[in-house]
Design a protein that fits this description.
By secondary structure, the chain is mainly alpha-helical. The chain has one domain. The longest helix has 24 residues. The radius of gyration is 14 Å and the shape is flat. The chain starts with a helix and ends with a helix.
């Protein structure tokens, strides 16, 4: 993964990005019991994954390499949408 962060141009930010992802993922689990936490965590992860797609587009990765980020962005948006309706 270190080489991927270097390739993406975010070598120095990898700990920060990883911490954001870990915290938001943990908040998704906590959000099972607290819907507001679920909404915030899922929209935050949607933004992170959307940014990941943009980074992949910027460095001209193929769709195959973009697919996981796209799927996670869509999945988190669905979670956000459903939790926001409650």
């Amino acid at each position: 993964m270190i080489l991927e962060y270097i390739r993406w141009g975010y070598r120095k930010q990898r700990y920060l990005i990883g911490a954001f992802q870990f915290i938001a993922g943990t908040c998704l689990i906590i959000g099972i019991f607290y819907p507001k936490v679920l909404s915030l965590a899922s929209i935050f992860l949607t933004v992170i994954m959307s940014a990941a797609v943009l980074v992949r587009v910027k460095i001209k990765d193929g769709i195959y390499k973009m697919l996981p980020a796209i799927l996670y962005a869509v999945l988190n948006f669905i979670i956000f949408y459903n939790s926001f309706l409650k």
